[in-house]
Amino acid sequence: MDASSPVAAAQGASPFSRAVTGAGFFAGLLLVAPHALLTSMALARAGWPAAELVAFFWLWGLAMAVSRRGLSLGLTLLGFSPFLFGAQSYVYPGVAFGLLADVAALAFCWRNAGGKAASGESTGPTGALLAALAALALGSTLLLPWARFWQELSLFGPGGFFAAMAFSPADAPGYALAGAWRLAIFAVLAFGLARLDFPDRFGCLIRGLVGGLLTAIVFGLYEHFQGDHYLLHYRFTSLFANPGWFAEYAAVAAPYLLTLLAGANLRRRALAALGLALCGAAMVLTLARAGWIAGSLTFFAAGWLYFRENRFVRFRRPYGHLPTLAVAGALVVGIAFWGAGRELSAISRPINALLAKRVDNFTDSPRPTLFRSGLLIAAERPVFGMGFTSYARHYPVLLATPGAWLNRYGDPRAEVFETPHSMYVQLAAGLGAAGLLVWLAMVGRAGWVLWRRARDYASLPDAALLLSLAAFHVYAFFQEMFYVPAVLFLLFIPLARAMALEAGAAREGRARGTGWVRAAAGGVALCGILAYGLDIGLGGTAARLGLYDWMPPGEKVVFEGFYPPEQGQGRTFRWSAGDAALLVPPGTGSLTLSLAAASPTEATFFSPAGLWARVGLDGGPVTVTLPVPETGDGRAVPLYLLTTRAFVPQAATGAADPRRLGVAVGVVGRH
């Protein structure tokens, strides 16, 4: 697959262009390198299997950095790998995939620096809009409680603070900080990929994506239809933690199966047909209705390529296969109905019964309520939003605050989720109308570039990249696509290809009149950062709503850096993600806590006045009652929890739990 090469990029570039590009290159390194080192530390401490994975990632990155053959194999592995890390961002697989992206980005930066591609090449409109979006996301972190962050950093240390941030669930301020950092790192990875002096880089990625998707499906089908459970008693997930997340991955990666149709190789075309059939079956078995909608783009495209004359693929007898397809389809339908009417020991819930239920309830979904909640949160700061991926943090506060839009028009009985289940609503809530428009402009420009390339050169790989971009954004109407890093990564491959094509057009003198896009994108980013700075820590918004602190009025204790509540041994408790914090309203007097740990450890609490308590834990629950100091300014009292040991069961013992567990904390008398 031919792609634009950045050789001799510095020739003919203006001094200003070289300075801006060089500054962006080093800013990217400053974003990626500390994240990679701190992630490596956090994972290496989780157990020997995690430490071995970290070592493998760094060796893989080194091979890509110093060897062209290593780069080819490494890019293929990068495309193959997402299905191995199909979980949300704040658990072990998600954090590990973040390190994979870090190492890949560093390898690309090293190769680009060595090839002098780090200076002089102006950024096209897609790159400028992506940079502006990353700047907005990072700037929005100014709305987070930085005074508390600095205190936590001094108490936890850089490693402890980062681990708590990386493993914090979506309602914690650290989650928003980690999300903005991750988006910026993926942007750096895309910039590096676009500028690599390796013509087949996108071909390697596509081959890896095809291999990974087929492996995920075959392995998932094997797991789905074996064992002592009843056949089809649960939704298809493969290695993903959730069937909907696998459906996201499959719908966005499926277009790359079409690249196997290129040429007249019968084996490749047979593999394409088999792959599309398996992918269709897997997406049906997920019972993810959004996946059916987004995934249908690939199958419509396959039908168009097969039955319509086009310049991408030529088939000798497309209609000659119709009788075979009809017989095969009738056979499948007949077997399905036969299985549905039989009482077989292996079939307890036939698939067509499950499908009928999902189709009958197609519109029965909490999403409209979630969409409205997200838009009501966006209404508090409609232009630049409340902070990137901060929906879950703001929802309980604004729902309980008189005068807030969500309090006035939201539904207090609605089920609570960590995301609004729509990327567009999350963007509007987090980065406002400005961020949403920048995103849409970026995607629209990238799509236009890919469409032009596919049309003018009859490039099937570019058509597949365009379809993948479209499937991602169709699915984004129904899911918040930032939640699973392995799925979000798939977006940056077509973006990188569009940036590479724009760079090639600029070198050939075919890119004119795009300077205003770069200027507008930079202006929006600067205005956004200024707006966030004027409301730092949401101080202005809190004052407008009559809040002393960003916590729900009347709440006895707010947990930051803790997982959702669990029941056990007659009590309600939350596991901390290692080091964490409790916010206690002023005037509380005293607080009674129930503490426990999975193995002997020591829990140390600090208040703003210094050491608050130190409690030894040897496996059984311990109940302590402690006085709560007053801050004197009417604000909530932060109590910082430090633990001498935190562990990740999945990394340490192979258990199913992928969280990072520190101390189990419950508030006695609170339900």
Automatic annotation (TrEMBL):
<keyword id="KW-0812">Transmembrane</keyword>
<feature type="transmembrane region" description="Helical">
    <location>
        <begin position="205"/>
        <end position="225"/>
    </location>
</feature>
<feature type="transmembrane region" description="Helical">
    <location>
        <begin position="270"/>
        <end position="285"/>
    </location>
</feature>
<dbReference type="Pfam" id="PF04932">
    <property type="entry name" value="Wzy_C"/>
</dbReference>
<feature type="transmembrane region" description="Helical">
    <location>
        <begin position="423"/>
        <end position="445"/>
    </location>
</feature>
<feature type="transmembrane region" description="Helical">
    <location>
        <begin position="20"/>
        <end position="38"/>
    </location>
</feature>
<feature type="transmembrane region" description="Helical">
    <location>
        <begin position="128"/>
        <end position="147"/>
    </location>
</feature>
<feature type="transmembrane region" description="Helical">
    <location>
        <begin position="175"/>
        <end position="193"/>
    </location>
</feature>
<keyword id="KW-0472">Membrane</keyword>
<dbReference type="GO" id="GO:0016020">
    <property type="term" value="C:membrane"/>
</dbReference>
<dbReference type="InterPro" id="IPR007016">
    <property type="entry name" value="O-antigen_ligase-rel_domated"/>
</dbReference>
<dbReference type="InterPro" id="IPR051533">
    <property type="entry name" value="WaaL-like"/>
</dbReference>
<feature type="transmembrane region" description="Helical">
    <location>
        <begin position="90"/>
        <end position="108"/>
    </location>
</feature>
<feature type="transmembrane region" description="Helical">
    <location>
        <begin position="245"/>
        <end position="263"/>
    </location>
</feature>
<feature type="transmembrane region" description="Helical">
    <location>
        <begin position="515"/>
        <end position="534"/>
    </location>
</feature>
<keyword id="KW-1133">Transmembrane helix</keyword>
<feature type="transmembrane region" description="Helical">
    <location>
        <begin position="482"/>
        <end position="503"/>
    </location>
</feature>
<feature type="transmembrane region" description="Helical">
    <location>
        <begin position="50"/>
        <end position="70"/>
    </location>
</feature>
<feature type="domain" description="O-antigen ligase-related">
    <location>
        <begin position="275"/>
        <end position="440"/>
    </location>
</feature>
<feature type="transmembrane region" description="Helical">
    <location>
        <begin position="319"/>
        <end position="340"/>
    </location>
</feature>
<protein>
    <submittedName>
        <fullName>O-antigen polymerase</fullName>
    </submittedName>
</protein>
